[in-house]
Description:
Layout: H1 8-50, E1 57-61, E2 68-73, H2 77-82, E3 85-88, H3 90-98, H4 109-113
Antiparallel strand pairs: 1-2, 1-3
Amino acid sequence: MSDTSPSRLELLHFARRVVVQQATAALAQIDGWIAVEERREAERLRGAEARPEPPEWLVQYGLSRNNVDSVHVGDCWAAKKSGRCRPVTREQAVQALLHQVPPCVHCRPDTELGVLE
């Protein structure tokens, strides 16, 4: 009866091939994750570059969209939250304030525009 079991050297070569195969697969998976993340980052940057500049001034309309409720600075968090705002020019914002449209109590556009009561 002959001994057909692999030698220690053959087992070590086999173990090396297994490790190389697993490492290659793991690197391919990580490279895939990197590629996906690079695409996401590139899309995010393109979106940020394509986004228009925010307006300087906003007016907030009531629920019926017929009456103006308040005037806001363009980056006011309260205006963003309401969703009922439209951009206006500086002159339109001043005119609204002069016609008794209340300024936002958070961003104080009357102070920014120099229209104090």
